[in-house]
Each structure stands twice: as structure tokens, then as C-alpha cells.
């Protein structure tokens, strides 16, 4: 059951957010990220936000990733799509990558999506350090997610603060009510922030960690110390550091650095959050804060359920950090911008007809289009076919517009599908039809083309079904050394 259905209070609903930050050290992704995403947890997650640092960004690889999705995005989409999660957007700056996934039911209520980035490393030219962010409205609440990779090494704590403030100052959004990061109702700040544990020697550090006495190290954690004197940091909340320092490990092990450098362990990888306007802090066992509001009618409450790292992953010298939150709020927006209507089920033997209606004013365009998506699709571009909306003028509010798709454009694979209205200006899917079925072309219609056509048709269907089985994990891609 999705978190949206849990804990209703005076019209409030709780949405479950799963945030991951991981410095992947230019490594290729592991074979399986299900435990990283905790896909078996209940209630189910509503939003996934994954921030990566040091994704392989050699010039050849970076250009290749711009032409098609990088290997990390591919793995995340392949893992989450079968569970009903859609990739909404992503932003990449060299090795920094930030990706947003959401349950399909919520996608029409994610609006005003914008992303930006700020370089800080090497005088801002190469972008090996800095921050990338995505902001959007979620049921009318303004959220911003900021993934940073700040300056390394023990002696650069002040430089890290300077970089953070520089990123906040330079990141602008084309939104009148939230032009900068801190204008958003909730900000999540995470990444390889690179703050270290000062003063303690290696023996004391490792002894404290091995005995699980992390509290002995908290007062010398640079980020914790900086919070005592930096007003901007005092506005951010963070759960207790009750997990092992996440840097630096020998790869494919749970052993801290045994190289000649012998880097001291540190909590370099962090997840914090801030609510605006700042309310009186209330603390309970789950650490929750709530907005006090210039908009009392639509407050929001953030409760952190978990803050930990997953030491089982070893492809990098950092361990990934995970935080889960409940976002409790009243929906400020509940009506979709468009409705899509389909009658009955579709057959590949016949032209298909459907209808759409604009319900609310938005910046629609004659470049908008409506895609046909097989259930389990990964992103807005993962359509089977599409049709342009009304091609001569923008549809008026409440006007019922009829659209046809030729039977020759319908997918050859039967299954459950939805129609999705894609807004070019909003860069997202803003509406879905109810799920309906598309059936295969009838054999009798194929026989009219003769035996040769029938044979080709049967072979083609077998190939498509084999590919579908591979995509759905029912068959391996390689059988006895042969690629399927």
C-alpha cells in the first residue's frame, strides 16, 4: 500500500520519500540495487531521489552518456519500471547525477520541473565539484533537491562552506515564487559533502567505530561543528549519525583504507533537510519538523524514518547513504490538467479512437503529444507510438478533442497500456488514461496476405515475445553463449 493512503489527518496524507547519495568512484553499477532502494519495504515508496557523485565522466564516456542514458540510469530504470515507477527527470554535470522517479499515479501532480547546476572545482571550468538540483511542485508544494560534491581533504572545511554558499547563491530558477533554492518550502541537501572527523587519531577512530560508539566522534565531525557557528547550517536538520562513517573503504570490502595513504574514516556522505519558514523545532524519536506557515492552510510536516548506510555495496570506496522520510501534507492541487478517455479495448486490426479534454489553464502547445505506453514503461520517451494533439490550434478549456491512431501504428505486442499526455512546455506527462488492453492482430487478417506473410508474421511475433521476455526478466539475454 502506498504511503499516500497512510495516516490521513484533517485531510493530510503521508507520502514516502526515499533519498540515496553515493559517491560511486567512477565504478560501473553493481548487478543489483534492490536492497539500496529497499523495494520490499512497506508502505511502498512514492518518490525516489538518487544523487550520485563521481559517475564515470571521461570525455568519451560523457559524450556517450549524453547520447543515451548512462549505465547507472539504465540500471535504476530497469529496476524501478517493473514496480510502476517512472523516471521524471534527471540532471547531469560531469560526474554529478541527480535522478527523480515517482509512482505513475503522482506524475500528473508533479509540475513546474526545473533543474540547474553550478560548477566549483577547477575554477568552475571542468565541473568535477559543485552542485546539481531539481525543483518541482508536488501537489502544489514546492520541493527542491540539491546534490553536491564539495572540496576534499581535512583542512578545507571553510572552503566547503564557501562552496555551499556559492552554490546557493548561483542557482536560479525561472519561477516567480521560488527563484532560489532556499525559497522552496522543503529543501533536501545531500551528497559527498566531504566533511571529516577532526583531531582524533586513527586508533581512537577505528576503536570507536568497531565498538559502535559513534557518539564519541560526533563532537569532532566538521559539519556538526560548523553548524554551531554558521547560521545557514542551523536551518538544516539531520538525523543522528548512528551508522559507520562511509569513507574510505577498500573496494569490495568492509575494511577501512589499508593503502599507503590510510585515509581516516569520515561521514563524508550526508543527507539533510530544511523547511521554510523555519518553525520551532519539535523533536521526537523520529525527528520531525513542520512548517509554520505563511500558508497555514497548506502546511507540510517532514518526518525522517531512517538514516543509514548500506555497507554491502563495494564497487566504490564510499558506502551509499539512505534516508527515508514521510512528507505529510494536504494536497493543494488535486485536479489533473487533462483527462484522457478510451472506450473498450483496442485491436491491432482497427484504427483506434480516443478523446482528451483540457480541464485547467496551462501552457499547452500544438507540439504537445499523446503517447501509448505499455504498463511497465520507464520514462516519457518510452512510448510504443504517439499522436500529436490538435494540430492547428490549442484546444479550449472543456473542449472534447477526438484523436485517431492508425492500426498500422499500433504495437504488435498485446498487453495492458495507458495513454499519456505529454506537455512540451512543462517537459512532463501531465495526464494518463485508465489502463486498457491492446490485443494482437487476428490471424484471419494475416491470412489475407498469403502463407509467406503469415510465416514472416509468426516469426516476427516470436522475436518480439522473446525480446519482451528478456526485458521482463523471464529469459536470460545470453543462452549457451548465444545472444537472444
UniProtKB/TrEMBL annotation:
Ranges where the Inositol polyphosphate-related phosphatase domain occurs: 13-333
BP terms from Gene Ontology: negative regulation of glycogen biosynthetic process; negative regulation of insulin receptor signaling pathway; negative regulation of phosphatidylinositol 3-kinase/protein kinase B signal transduction; phosphatidylinositol dephosphorylation
Pfam family, one: SKICH
Gene3D superfamilies tied to this protein: 2.60.40.2840, Endonuclease/exonuclease/phosphatase
Entry annotated with the keyword Transmembrane helix: yes
UniProt GO MF annotations: inositol bisphosphate phosphatase activity; phosphatidylinositol-3,4,5-trisphosphate 5-phosphatase activity; phosphatidylinositol-4,5-bisphosphate 5-phosphatase activity
Family: Belongs to the inositol 1,4,5-trisphosphate 5-phosphatase type II family.
PANTHER family linked: INOSITOL 5-PHOSPHATASE (PTHR11200), INOSITOL POLYPHOSPHATE 5-PHOSPHATASE K ISOFORM X3 (PTHR11200:SF299)
Protein name: Inositol polyphosphate-5-phosphatase K
Amino acid at each position: 500500500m502506498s504511503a499516500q493512503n497512510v495516516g490521513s489527518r484533517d485531510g493530510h496524507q503521508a507520502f514516502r520519500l526515499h533519498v540515496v547519495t553515493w559517491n560511486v568512484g567512477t565504478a560501473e553499477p553493481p548487478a543489483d540495487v534492490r536492497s539500496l532502494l529497499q523495494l520490499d519495504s512497506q508502505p511502498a515508496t512514492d518518490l525516489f531521489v538518487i544523487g550520485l557523485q563521481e559517475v564515470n565522466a571521461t570525455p568519451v564516456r560523457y559524450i556517450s552518456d549524453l547520447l543515451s542514458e548512462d549505465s547507472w540510469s539504465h540500471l535504476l530504470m530497469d529496476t524501478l519500471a517493473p514496480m510502476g515507477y517512472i523516471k521524471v527527470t534527471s540532471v547531469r554535470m560531469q560526474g554529478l547525477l541527480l535522478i527523480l522517479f515517482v509512482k505513475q499515479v503522482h506524475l500528473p501532480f508533479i509540475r513546474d520541473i526545473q533543474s540547474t547546476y553550478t560548477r566549483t572545482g577547477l575554477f568552475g571550468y571542468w565541473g568535477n565539484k559543485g552542485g546539481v538540483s531539481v525543483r518541482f511542485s508536488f501537489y502544489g508544494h514546492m520541493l527542491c533537491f540539491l546534490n553536491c560534491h564539495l572540496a576534499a581533504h581535512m583542512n578545507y572545511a571553510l572552503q566547503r562552506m564557501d562552496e555551499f554558499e556559492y552554490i546557493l547563491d548561483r542557482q536560479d530558477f525561472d519561477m516567480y515564487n521560488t527563484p532560489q533554492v532556499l525559497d522552496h518550502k522543503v529543501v533536501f541537501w545531500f551528497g559527498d559533502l566531504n566533511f571529516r572527523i577532526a583531531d582524533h587519531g586513527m586508533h581512537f577512530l577505528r576503536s570507536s567505530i568497531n565498538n559502535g560508539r559513534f557518539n564519541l566522534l560526533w563532537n569532532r565531525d566538521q559539519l556538526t561543528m560548523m553548524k554551531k557557528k554558521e547560521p545557514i547550517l542551523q536551518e538544516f536538520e539531520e538525523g543522528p549519525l548512528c551508522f559507520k562513517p562511509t569513507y574510505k573503504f577498500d573496494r569490495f570490502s568492509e575494511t577501512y583504507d589499508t593503502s599507503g595513504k590510510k585515509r581516516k574514516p569520515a561521514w563524508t556522505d550526508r543527507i539533510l533537510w530544511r523547511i521554510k519558514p523555519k518553525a520551532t523545532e519539535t523533536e521526537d524519536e523520529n525527528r520531525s519538523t513542520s512548517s509554520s506557515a505563511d500558508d497555514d492552510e497548506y502546511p507540510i510536516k517532514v518526518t525522517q524514518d531512517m538514516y543509514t548506510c548500506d555497507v554491502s555495496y563495494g564497487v566504490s570506496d564510499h558506502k551509499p547513504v539512505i534516508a527515508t522520510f514521510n512528507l505529510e501534507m494536504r494536497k493543494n492541487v488535486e485536479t489533473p490538467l487533462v483527462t484522457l478517455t478510451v472506450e473498450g479495448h483496442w485491436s491491432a486490426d482497427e484504427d483506434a479512437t480516443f478523446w482528451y479534454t483540457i480541464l485547467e489553464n496551462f501552457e499547452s502547445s500544438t507540439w504537445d503529444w499523446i503517447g501509448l505506453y505499455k504498463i511497465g514503461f520507464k520514462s516519457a520517451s518510452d512510448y510504443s507510438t504517439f499522436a500529436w494533439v490538435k494540430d492547428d490550434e490549442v484546444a479550449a478549456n472543456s473542449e472534447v478533442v477526438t484523436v485517431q491512431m492508425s492500426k498500422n501504428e499500433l504495437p504488435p505486442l498485446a498487453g495492458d497500456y495507458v495513454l499519456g499526455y505529454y506537455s512540451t512546455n512543462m517537459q512532463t506527462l501531465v495526464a494518463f488514461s485508465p489502463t486498457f488492453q491492446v490485443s494482437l492482430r487476428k490471424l484471419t487478417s494475416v491470412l489475407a496476405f498469403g502463407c509467406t506473410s503469415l510465416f514472416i508474421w509468426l516469426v516476427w511475433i516470436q522475436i518480439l515475445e522473446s525480446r519482451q521476455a528478456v526485458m521482463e526478466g523471464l529469459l536470460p539475454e545470453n543462452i549457451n553463449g548465444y545472444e537472444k
